[in-house]
Amino acid sequence: MSITKGLRLPVLVAPMFLVSGVEMVVAAARAGVLGAFPTPNCRTAAELDRWMAEVAARVEGRPWAVNVITHSSNPRLADDLALIAKYRPPVLITALGSPAAAVATAHGYGGMVMADVPNVALARKALAAGADGLACLAAGAGGHTGSLSPFAFVSAVRRFHRGPLSIGGGIGDGAGIAAALAAGADMACMGTHFIACDESLAGSDYKQAVVAAGLEDIVLSDRVTGTMASWLRASLAAAGYLADDGSTPNRNYEAGAAAGRWRDIWSAGQGVGAIRHTAPLETIIDELEAEYREVVLRLPKMM
């Protein structure tokens, strides 16, 4: 089972809350990479039905993916899975909970389940629950992030898992894609770089903020959702989340509640410094492919 079959470049355009939508997923498919959106970006099951119908019709048989939150705080999980069974995305990415329920759905129509995991223990649990592959979340990722080095993480997981594996966290250019493959991953997961693409749902202020930002503008905080995540410092400060009031944050990923908090609190990862401009997604993929090929051609000369 190959996660990269039919792709021009081994890249997963990460599903990003309030950023990834129909246009981004369709543009990714047409550009030859794997695009995904998280189901909470749709406020209702009816809206998700419309989104999935449109994507399924417009990708014309190319690979695409959907991301579903399997944590118990997602009250719409059953509805989301029913629509996934209806529209049959080739790849289903689970997050923030056991992939078990999603496995039954995806395997029912021949789909692949990639479980989003931030550490080795959860990687083992996801595979035991039936996941086909792992979307390893390493340090430097935007939004909910991991804490492990991507190189150490991939190396550790490859000792017991030979199936599909993507790695994400701070990958901002074609050299990072090549490094991910050299480390043992099948594909690189990139989110931050695509916040500024024309097809993104992000507002113009958000897009310009990521274009202007550097590494020093990224901060980690669990104050927004109760789980550690990477944010743009200025937006976090404006919302009053930089100060620690001593309280214990509650884990809450419910779409309605999170939308109000995240619309003006902007996530971004450590790959932010590689973003030079806003552009169509296909243009960004062209640039990444050129960088990737340059590295791949240079490496043999160094041996």
UniProtKB/TrEMBL annotation:
This is Nitronate monooxygenase. GO terms for molecular function: monooxygenase activity. Keywords: Flavoprotein, FMN, Monooxygenase, Oxidoreductase. Its EC number is 1.13.12.-. InterPro entries: Aldolase_TIM, NMO. The keyword Plastid does not apply. Gene3D superfamilies: Aldolase class I. Belongs to the nitronate monooxygenase family. NMO class I subfamily. It comes from the Bacteria. It holds the Pfam family NMO.
